[in-house]
């Protein structure tokens, strides 16, 4: 059987959908914190089991009979490592034969604070002895498009990335890659740096939005502190605002750029174009 943790989250649902194209529903376990939220998956024949990262007693039963497990990193911005460790320990005890983990692009060397717990999780997986594949996901293009309405209203994107380039991809692309790794063989022991075929700066993102909207939209580069203040003023928790501002600074140093093409090769098609995602954002 194949299990996906966080299966009712934004990425998890897409992974389940991709798996269903090649794997029978009764061979897929949606491991979720709240089984009520997985009722729609159960209606499609997917096995829904409770698996709460913060309640280790739920994890062993959730992974019973599972051969391949996708550990989708916790959405907590700090304190993720103990939750991930609990999943890894439970997977080891359950006899899982392969664990895949959604890490962060260049986690082994990235200066971004967001990479720290990903790097530590990779180390815990390595120490566990479980056969593993590390999926180092780049930035999600959706992260930038969340600012789309405000950018249109005020005529500007803001950030602290200078002219750093983002090889960000669509969540759908990362989901298909994860499903491919679970559903096929030959991935154990590999680390994939996953990023889009196309990279862009935030100034280029603003120019694309301007082109498609017909409105003047620019990119205003701020200091890390000023950008953090903008994010907290918009209602983000201070911890998250600090991590996102730090990630922009890391991007200015190349931390979120990659041109290996590994993502496109895994999914067997070109990655989703920025232009297409901006167009879709307008439709939404």
Layout: helices, strands, pairs:
Layout (H helix, E strand, L loop, with lengths): L1 E4 L4 H10 L8 E5 L6 H5 L3 E4 L8 H4 L5 E4 L8 H15 L3 E7 L10 H14 L3 E6 L3 H5 L2 H7 L1 E4 L11 H13 L7 E4 L7 H12 L4 E4 L2 H10 L4 H15 L9 H6 L6 H10 L1
Parallel strand pairs: 1-2, 1-4, 2-3, 4-5, 5-6, 6-8, 7-9
Helix pairs in contact: 1-8, 4-5, 9-13, 10-11
Could you walk me through the main structural features you see in this protein, from its secondary elements to its overall organization?
It contains 13 helices and nine strands. Helix 9 crosses helix 13 and helix 10 (224-233) runs antiparallel to helix 11 (238-252). Helix content is 44%, strand content 15%. The protein is α/β, with parallel strands linked by helices and 284 residues long. The radius of gyration is 19 Å and the shape is globular. The protein has helices at 10-19, 39-43, 59-62, 80-94, 115-128, 141-145, 148-154, 171-183, 202-213, 224-233, 238-252, 262-267, 274-283, and strands at 2-5, 28-32, 47-50, 68-71, 98-104, 132-137, 156-159, 191-194, 218-221. It has a domain at 2-138 and 170-194 and 259-267: Rossmann fold, CATH 3.40.50. The strands form two sheets. A seven-stranded parallel sheet has the order 3-2-1-4-5-6-8, sandwiched between helices. Strands 7-9 form a two-stranded parallel sheet. This is NAD(P)H dehydrogenase (Quinone). InterPro entries: NAD(P)-bd_dom, NAD(P)-bd_dom_sf, NmrA-type_oxidoreductase. Pfam families: NAD_binding_10.
């Amino acid at each position: 059987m194949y299990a996906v943790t966080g299966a009712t989250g934004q990425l998890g649902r897409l992974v389940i959908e991709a798996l269903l194209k090649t794997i029978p529903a009764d061979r897929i376990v949606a491991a979720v914190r709240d089984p009520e939220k997985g009722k729609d998956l159960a209606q499609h024949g997917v096995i829904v089991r409770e698996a709460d990262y913060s309640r280790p007693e739920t994890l062993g039963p959730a992974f019973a009979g599972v051969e391949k497990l996708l550990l989708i990193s916790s959405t907590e911005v700090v304190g993720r490592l103990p939750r991930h460790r609990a999943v890894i320990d439970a997977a080891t005890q359950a006899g899982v034969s392969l664990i895949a983990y959604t890490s962060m692009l260049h986690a082994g060397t990235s200066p971004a604070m967001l990479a720290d717990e990903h790097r530590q999780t990779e180390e815990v997986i390595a120490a566990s002895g479980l056969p593993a594949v590390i999926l180092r996901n780049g930035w999600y293009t959706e992260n930038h498009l969340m600012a789309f309405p405000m950018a249109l209203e005020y005529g500007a994107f803001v950030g602290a990335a200078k002219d750093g380039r983002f090889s960000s991809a669509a969540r759908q692309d990362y989901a298909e890659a994860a499903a491919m790794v679970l559903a096929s063989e030959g991935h154990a022991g590999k680390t994939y740096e996953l990023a889009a075929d196309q990279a862009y700066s935030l100034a280029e993102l603003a120019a694309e939005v301007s082109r498609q909207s017909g409105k003047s939209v620019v990119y205003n580069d701020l200091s890390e502190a000023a950008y953090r203040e903008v994010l907290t003023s918009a209602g983000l928790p201070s911890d998250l605002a600090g991590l996102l501002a730090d990630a922009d600074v890391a991007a200015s140093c190349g931390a979120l750029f990659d041109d290996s093409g590994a993502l496109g090769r895994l999914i067997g098609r070109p990655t989703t174009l920025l232009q297409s995602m901006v167009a879709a954002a307008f439709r939404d």
